[in-house]
Design goal:
The protein has helices at residues 2-28, 73-76, 266-271, 342-345, 440-467, and strands at residues 32-42, 48-58, 64-71, 79-88, 95-99, 101-104, 114-124, 129-138, 143-144, 148-150, 156-162, 170-179, 185-188, 194-197, 200-209, 216-222, 228-239, 245-255, 259-261, 284-288, 293-299, 308-311, 316-320, 331-340, 346-348, 354-359, 368-377, 383-388, 394-400, 409-419, 426-432. It is mainly β and 468 residues long. Bound molecules: 2-acetamido-2-deoxy-beta-D-glucopyranose (3 copies). Belongs to the OST1 family.
C-alpha cells in the first residue's frame, strides 16, 4: 500500500515538474518577426523553384537560435530539396553562409502545417535582425488541365499556392513574384494588389499580415516543357582497379504532362513541327563527365544509333533520341552505359583508404527521378565500406557476383526518392583494399586458362589415342 502511494506521489511530482517546465519554456520561447519577405516562384520548368528572402528580427526577450519555415501539408511531400543561407556583408561584398535545415514538428500546428527549422549561425539576440535566403524545389506540383490534349493542342497547367507566405510569425511587408514560361496565362486568382506584366505575376505588397495568413491562389498557364519524369532509375557503378569505372543506367522514363488524346499522326508531327506536339519531346540531353568512353544507348529492341555525343575538356553531352517522340502519358525504357577513367574518380584519402568520388543524381537535364537507386560495386576483397552523401539517403550493403568472382563483391546501395537536378552533387564511397587482392583477378584468369590448357591437352591425347 505504502509503495503504491509513494509511486503516485512521485508521478504527481513528476507531472507538476513537467508542467512547470513546459510553462517556463513557453514563456521564454523567443518571438520573431519577419520585417520584409520577398518570394520568387519560378514556374518556367516542370520543376517548381522557390526563392525566399527574409529579413528577420528578434522581438522577444531571449536570444533565438532558429527560425521555423511553415508549409501546407499538400506541399510538404513535394519538396525535393530545401536549402538556407545567411547573407553577410552589403551589396558587392555580399556572401552566403549555408545554414542547417531540418524537418521538425510542433504539437500546436494549425491545419496540419508542416515545419522545417533553420538554425542561425549564432543566436539572434533581442532587437537584432538577420537576412536569410531560402531555396526549395517542388516536384509534381503542376497539374495539367485539361488532363487530356490532342496532338495539336498546347499544354495548360494549374499551380496552387497562397498569395501570402504561410508563416508562424507576423510579416510586416511581403511580396510574391510568379514567373511563367510564356505570356499565355489563362487565368489567375486576384488578391489585391495583384498585377501581371510580361511573364510575371505580382502579388502584394501586403502589409502587416498576422501569423498563419493564407490566401489560396490558382494560376492557370501554358507550359510546354518536357515533363520528363524517371519513375525508376538504377545506376550501377562498377569499380575495377585494373580497368576503369563502368556505369550502367537503367531508365523508366515517362512524359508526365497532359495525356495524349486520339491517334498519333507522324505525318502531322513531321510536316508541321511547330504546330504538332508542342508539349511532346523527342530528345533529352544527358550530361556526362569529360573523358567518358565506350558510350552506348539501347532499349528492348537493341542499340539505338541516333544518339550524338559531344565532348570537350569540361563535360560530355549525350543527346538521347528514343525511337518515337514522347507524348503525355507515354513511356520509354532504355539503358545507357559508359566507362570513365579510374584516375578521375578514384582517390586515396590521407588515412590510406580508397574512395570513389562521383556525382549522385540523374545526368538527364531537368528531369525528376521518383526513385533513384545507386549501386556501387567495389572490387573483390574490399572491406569496411562507408558512403558519404550530402543529403539524406537510405543505405545498405549487398553482395554481387560477376564472372571470375569467388567471394562476391561488396556493393553499397544508396536509395533516394524525389530526386531533382539540384541533387547532382558529389558523393563518396570509402573502402579498405589490400593490394594483394589486385592479383585475384589475373590469378583467376591465369588459372582458368591453365585449366583450359590442361583440358585441351587431355582431349588431344585422348583423340590421338583413339586414332591409333
Ligand atoms: C485552417 O482551416 C480553417 C477551416 O478550414 C480555415 O478557415 C483557415 O483559413 C485555415 N488556416 C490556414 C492557415 O490554412
Ligand atoms: C550495342 O553496342 C555495344 C557497345 O557499342 C556493343 O557492345 C553491343 O554488341 C551492341 N549490340 C548490338 C545488338 O548491336
Ligand atoms: C569530389 O569531386 C569534386 C569535384 O567533382 C570536388 O570538388 C570535391 O572536393 C571532391 N571531394 C572529395 C572528398 O575529394
Amino acid at each position: 500500500m505504502e509503495v503504491v502511494v509513494s509511486r503516485l506521489q512521485l508521478a504527481l511530482i513528476f507531472s507538476l515538474l513537467v508542467a512547470s517546465l513546459s510553462l517556463l519554456v513557453r514563456s521564454s520561447s523567443p518571438e520573431l518577426q519577419i520585417l520584409t519577405a520577398e518570394r520568387r516562384i519560378d514556374l518556367t520548368s516542370h520543376i517548381v523553384r522557390v526563392y525566399l528572402t527574409l529579413k528577420v528580427e528578434n522581438t522577444g526577450a531571449s536570444p533565438a537560435s532558429e527560425i521555423l519555415l511553415a508549409f501546407p501539408p499538400t506541399q510538404v511531400d513535394h519538396i525535393a530539396q530545401i536549402k538556407a543561407a545567411a547573407t553577410v556583408g552589403k551589396k558587392k561584398k555580399k556572401s552566403y553562409l549555408p545554414l542547417v535545415v531540418n524537418p521538425t514538428e510542433r504539437p500546436d500546428a494549425p491545419n496540419g502545417t508542416k515545419y522545417f527549422s533553420v538554425s542561425f549561425l549564432s543566436p539572434l539576440s533581442t532587437g537584432e535582425s538577420v537576412t536569410l535566403e531560402v531555396f526549395f524545389t517542388l516536384t509534381h506540383s503542376l497539374e495539367p488541365f485539361p488532363v487530356e490534349i490532342s496532338q495539336s493542342e498546347s499544354q495548360l497547367v494549374y499551380y496552387h499556392d497562397s498569395a501570402k507566405i504561410l508563416s508562424p510569425y507576423d510579416i510586416k511587408q511581403q511580396i510574391t513574384l510568379v514567373k511563367t514560361p510564356s505570356k499565355k496565362v489563362e487565368s489567375f486568382t486576384r488578391v489585391e494588389p495583384t498585377g501581371f506584366a510580361g511573364t510575371e505575376l505580382k502579388y502584394g505588397p501586403y502589409m502587416d499580415s498576422p501569423s498563419y495568413s493564407f490566401s489560396p491562389i490558382i494560376v492557370h498557364f501554358e507550359n510546354n516543357n518536357a515533363f520528363a519524369v524517371v519513375e525508376e532509375l538504377l545506376r550501377e557503378v562498377e569499380i575495377s582497379h585494373w580497368g576503369s569505372i563502368q556505369i550502367t543506367e537503367h531508365y523508366k522514363l515517362v512524359h508526365n504532362g497532359a495525356r495524349h488524346k486520339g491517334v498519333f499522326s507522324r505525318v502531322e508531327y513531321q510536316s508541321r513541327p511547330s504546330f504538332g506536339g508542342v508539349s511532346s519531346f523527342k530528345n533529352l540531353l544527358a550530361q556526362l563527365p569529360p573523358r567518358v568512353h565506350s558510350v552506348y544507348y539501347r532499349d528492348e529492341i537493341g542499340n539505338i544509333s541516333t544518339s550524338h555525343l559531344r565532348t570537350d575538356f569540361r563535360k560530355s553531352e549525350l543527346e538521347i533520341e528514343p525511337r518515337y517522340p514522347l507524348f503525355g502519358g507515354w513511356k520509354a525504357t532504355f539503358l545507357i552505359g559508359y566507362g570513365l577513367p579510374l584516375e578521375d574518380f578514384l582517390f586515396q584519402s590521407p588515412d590510406g583508404r580508397r574512395y570513389l568520388n562521383l556525382s549522385f543524381g540523374c545526368p538527364l537535364a531537368e528531369t525528376v527521378v521518383d526513385k533513384l537507386t545507386v549501386k556501387v560495386v567495389l572490387p573483390e576483397g574490399s572491406k569496411n565500406p562507408s558512403a558519404v552523401v550530402p543529403f539524406s539517403a537510405e543505405q545498405h550493403l549487398e553482395t554481387s557476383y560477376s564472372y571470375l568472382d569467388v567471394v562476391g563483391r561488396t556493393t553499397v546501395v544508396l536509395e533516394k526518392k524525389n530526386v531533382v537536378p539540384e541533387h547532382n552533387s558529389p558523393f563518396q564511397v570509402y573502402y579498405n583494399f589490400h593490394p594483394i587482392f589486385m592479383l585475384a583477378e589475373p590469378l583467376m584468369l591465369a588459372s582458368v586458362f591453365f585449366l583450359l590448357f590442361i583440358a585441351c591437352v587431355a582431349y588431344l591425347h585422348m583423340d590421338i589415342a583413339i586414332r591409333k
